[in-house]
Structure formats: structure tokens, C-alpha cells
Fold this protein.
Amino acid sequence: MSFVRSFSVVAVAAAAAASVVIAQPAAKAAGKISVRWLGHAAFEVTSSGGTRILIDPWLAQNPSTPDSLKPVARWSGANKPAAILVSHAHFDHAGDAKALAQASGAPVVGAFEWVNTLGLPEAQAMGGNVGGTMTFGDVTVHIVPAMHSSDPGGRPLGFVLTFADGRSLYHTGDTWVFGDMSLIQERYHPSILLIGVGGGPYTEDAATAAFGVKKFFTPATIIPMHYGTFPALNSEAQVRAAFKGDARLAVLKPGETRSF
Ligand SMILES: [Zn+2]
């Protein structure tokens, strides 16, 4: 019990620290991190400095993505992301990455072996591997492991984004809860978790995700993803039930943006 209680104390402290950062005058207007859920595992994350990172962009055929956000052309020109991160090669994560890169000129970050199959210009093919780091504007992307598979090519990944104010965001990719999450917490202390909760045959369910958060992490915000897209996946009601009223749970609607 003392183990559980100590985590709760840390969580309260982390939440308090996050609110202090937001309350600082210099950071009040420009210090927010914006997170827009595009449906399933797809997100647009915008730093306080305006760096926009697109993660797992399966959009055109994604039944959860709002129609206005589906077209490839929507993500070009003024809306071009600084980088497109892809956790693994399955269609529901990598779906539109190549088309978006070709239309926008944005680089694709993912497993080295998979990125090299895309046929992109060298400057846009930013393959990496676990432990790798890349910087885009005021955002640094750290590549971390995930426990899943990837076909065709590469391996499953997660991403930790670190920001200028010291906060960080962790997109788990598709995974089961795994012991190295304790190292991700120790190394990066993510304050925003984008965590897979879908369950079904392929990934951890919402109850397991909630178990993992309690065991390993002290975030200020927990944003569930990879649920509700297909009948086999957990529903929003199941996700809410699994987190048992946790005030840190931020359930977004597809297309919705929240700032932290
Ligand atoms: Zn998936």
C-alpha cells in the first residue's frame, strides 16, 4: 500500500508543478502544449514555439477522423508538419505517412528499415531506432521501445517528445505494458501520456493501461487513444470505467484540441 500511496503523492506533486509552470507570466500566453486527437492513434502536437508534429497519421480511411482532417492536401502548405512520426508500419498507424510526406515535403521519422522502403528523398527519410533522438524546432523526439510487431519492416516504437519548458509527452504506440516503462518514466517523467487503451486481439486494453499508468507513471494528463475505432476495441465507456474517475484522464473527441 505504501508503494501505491507514494505514487499518488508524486502524482499530486507533478500536477502541482505543471500548474505552476502554466501560471508563470512569461509562459501564460505562449507556454502551452496543444494536443489534437485526429482519431485512433493519430495526433497533431504543437509546441509552445509553434512546432507541429504529426504522429501515426492514418486519416483518409480512418472512420474516426473528421472529414475536414482527412484530405492529404489539408496537411500541406501552411499546415505542413515539422515532422511525421510513425510508431510502426501497420496501416492504422502508417496509413497516410508516405502520401503526406510526398504532398507536404515533411520528413518521416520511424524505424530505419521501414522508412527506407518509402522511396522518399534522403532529406525526408529520417529512419531511426530505439534510443535515437532528433530535434525539430523547439521539440526533441526520443525513440523508445514498444512491445508489438511491425509489418512490413522495422520494429514497433514509441515516442517521447520533450519541450523547451522541460515537460515531455509520451505516445506509447501499440504496446502491452512492459517493464522498461519504468525507465521511460525515470528518464523523461512524461507529464502528458497518449496511451493505447483499445484492447481486442492486438494491444493492451483500458484496464491494463490504467494498471500501467498506476505502476509506472506520474503524468498530469492521460489521453486515451486507439479505442472506439472498430467494434473489437474498447468503447469510451469502458475506458472511463477502467480509469475509475481518475481526474487526470482527458477524453478527447476526434478533431478536438486541448492545451496543457
Ligand atoms: Zn494499431
